[in-house]
């Protein structure tokens, strides 16, 4: 899995006034959980853009005043009006502990159902995967080569080694439905036979 380096500065004071001052300076208050103690620090809002505003999942190589650690984003709080990041939580990665993160779904191939006029409907764009950090993937590839009109690929159809999908087994990932044009063509063909 890809990783991005972000550096942070330890926070002297923790509180609303301090957080407000940090945001005014273009910084985001942050907390690193998962270690022996919580680490309060701040990171540049500009550095977070490459990690937050992307469908790609990244591990983050944090450097907080020379102390290096690898983490993932656990939670982000946005301002309700401006959509600015006002707080971010990171979770320290431990190679012996499995973590659950959402991984993007990547569709591969061409559906024969779409070729004959069906409509491709992707219901899940991400799947929740539980695995050790070293076993996580950048994306989960789902083949649509066999997808005819009226057929679908469900979570239970996906088999991954060393990874557990925590979504409901009956959830549909992608399906091919009858499009309006195909339905109309079928009706015209049926009425033409009479």
Describe this structure in words.
This is one of the proteins that binds to the 5S RNA in the ribosome where it forms part of the central protuberance. Residues 7-90 form the Large ribosomal subunit protein bL25 L25 domain. It holds the Pfam family Ribosomal_L25p. Part of the 50S ribosomal subunit; part of the 5S rRNA/L5/L18/L25 subcomplex. Contacts the 5S rRNA. Binds to the 5S rRNA independently of L5 and L18. With 194 residues, the chain is α+β, with helices and mostly antiparallel strands. Helix content is 18%, strand content 42%. The longest helix is centred in the C-terminal third of the chain and has 14 residues, at 180-193. It starts with a strand and ends with a helix.
Summarize the structure.
The protein is of the alpha+beta class and 194 residues long. The chain has four helices and 13 strands.
Secondary-structure map:
Blueprint: E1 3-10, H1 16-24, E2 27-33, E3 39-44, H2 45-52, E4 59-64, E5 67-78, E6 85-92, E7 99-108, H3 112-115, E8 119-122, E9 126-131, E10 140-143, E11 152-154, E12 164-165, E13 172-177, H4 180-193
Parallel strand pairs: 1-4, 2-6, 7-10
Antiparallel strand pairs: 1-3, 2-3, 4-5, 5-6, 7-9, 8-13, 9-12, 11-13
Distance between the termini: 59 Å
Q: Structural class from helices and strands?
A: alpha+beta
Biggest β-sheet strands, sense, barrel:
6 strands, mixed, barrel
Helix content: 10-25%
Number of strands: 13
What spatial form do the alpha-carbon principal axes imply?
A: elongated
Radius of gyration: 23 Å
Lateral strand order in the biggest sheet? 1-3-2-6-5-4
Spans where pLDDT lies below 50 across 5 or more residues: none
**SSE sequence, one letter per element:** EHEEHEEEEHEEEEEEH
Q: What is the residue-averaged pLDDT?
A: 88
Organism: Mucilaginibacter dorajii
Domain Large ribosomal subunit protein bL25 L25: 7-90
Keywords: Ribonucleoprotein, Ribosomal protein, RNA-binding, rRNA-binding
Domain Large ribosomal subunit protein bL25 beta: 99-179
């Amino acid at each position: 899995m890809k990783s991005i380096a972000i550096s942070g500065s330890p926070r002297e004071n923790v509180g609303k006034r301090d957080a407000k001052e940090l945001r005014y300076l273009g910084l985001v208050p942050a907390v690193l959980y998962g270690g022996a103690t919580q680490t309060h620090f701040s990171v540049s809002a500009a550095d977070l853009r490459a990690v937050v505003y992307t469908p790609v999942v990244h591990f983050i190589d944090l450097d907080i005043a020379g102390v290096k650690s690898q983490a993932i984003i656990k939670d982000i709080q946005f301002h309700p009006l401006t959509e600015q990041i006002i707080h971010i939580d990171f979770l320290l990665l431990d190679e012996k502990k499995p973590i659950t993160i959402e991984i993007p779904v990547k569709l591969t191939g061409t559906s024969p159902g779409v070729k004959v006029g069906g409509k491709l409907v992707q219901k899940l764009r991400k799947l929740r995967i539980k695995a050790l950090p070293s076993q996580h993937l950048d994306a989960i590839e789902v083949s649509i080569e066999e997808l005819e009109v009226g057929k679908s690929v469900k979570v239970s159809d996906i088999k991954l080694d060393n990874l557990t999908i925590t979504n409901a087994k009956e959830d549909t990932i992608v399906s091919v439905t009858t499009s309006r044009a195909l339905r109309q063509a079928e009706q015209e063909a049926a009425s033409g036979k009479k």
